[in-house]
Design goal:
This protein is α+β, with helices and mostly antiparallel strands. It contains five helices and 15 strands. The protein has two domains: 106 residues, Immunoglobulin-like (Sandwich); 187 residues, C8orf32 fold (Roll), CATH 3.10.620.
Length: 305
């Protein structure tokens, strides 16, 4: 599926900002199963300095410096991205979760995609005992890891109410879990906390969902905005999968607990990190006073032929 992605982020300030420096994580990059045909950021006011780079995990970064006084900052993304259909997965064929846990802790790989980086607490994801105990209910001894993770995802969808007014970007997993309410960031953080709590690697993904009419029964929760979901590591090379099939192992598999679905060609990946703070779409420092309001509009539509 080929999509045209449009995102507009506006920051409105209560008083003029004299100087600003920002780091933006708003440009998609090619990934396995995803190709970026073109991507461009338009920033207003025009920065006096701008440079591009990447972080440790390979996400695209844009650093900007703005000296023109302004009360409104607008960042527009225009991109065309191809997303492959998800491969058929047999959850019961994945290794046991205990075997995956042992393999993850034994790894000597410290590259960007290594499970080692996604096993431990991070800035926004603590290893909460209540979330861990909730997670354990889906992981009896010997159960295939993906089968168990899918059950956990389905339980989170059933037990937590999607509520855009219940939490903020600073809400921690124990807080949203206690409320049993939240948005996609909260669903993802809770699932990550639970999986890491039992020793399984889990990563945070930011991105987009295909835009669908609100009346469409197939519309996923979280469309028309930035979305978040989870990558679960399901082990390395599998002995029953011939190498010539092109599959080195189960690897990272995307699960969307907000919608209780496996990530598919309706999911466009923007960035991957340990939690939201690794891949917040916009960070920075401004010289100004008063409050600010951030609005985000997203549209992801199939490209016209």
């Amino acid at each position: 599926m080929i999509y045209d992605v449009r995102q507009t982020t506006t920051c409105a300030y209560a008083s003029p900002v004299a100087h600003a420096r920002h780091v933006l994580r708003l440009t998609p990059i090619p990934r396995p199963g995803q190709r970026v045909h073109v991507a461009a950021l338009q920033i207003m006011p025009e920065p006096i300095n701008r440079r591009e780079g990447q972080d440790f995990f390979g996400n695209r970064l844009t650093w900007v410096e703005i000296e023109e006084p302004h009360r409104l900052l607008t960042v527009k993304l225009a991109a065309r991205v191809s997303v492959d259909a998800a491969a058929e997965l047999t959850a019961l064929a994945t290794p046991s979760w205990e075997a995956v846990r042992e393999e993850a802790f034994a790894t000597s790989d410290i590259g960007p995609q290594s499970p080692a980086h996604f096993l431990f607490p991070s800035r926004m994801v603590s290893l909460d005992p209540e979330i861990r105990d909730y997670t354990r209910e889906s992981f009896p001894a010997g159960r295939p890891v993906l089968d168990a993770a899918i059950e956990l995802m389905n339980r989170l969808k059933a037990d937590i109410t999607y509520d855009t007014g219940a939490t903020t970007v600073t809400t921690t997993p124990p807080m949203s879990f206690a409320l049993r309410r939240g948005v996609c960031q909260d669903f993802a953080h809770i699932m990550i906390s639970g999986l890491r709590g039992i020793g399984l690697p889990a990563a945070y993904v930011s991105g987009y969902l295909r835009t669908m009419p609100r009346t469409d029964p197939t519309r996923l929760q979280g469309a028309d905005a930035m979305h978040a979901w989870v990558l679960v590591w399901c082990g390395g090379p599998h002995p029953t999968l011939p190498r010539e099939q092109g599959r080195e192992g189960w690897g990272w598999i995307g699960l969307d607990p907000t919608n209780a679905v496996i990530a598919s060609d309706q999911h466009v990946v923007l960035a991957i990190g340990r939690d939201y703070t690794d891949i917040a779409p916009m960070d920075g420092v401004i010289v100004g006073s008063g409050g600010q309001r951030i609005d985000v509009a997203v549209n992801v539509t199939p490209a016209a032929n």
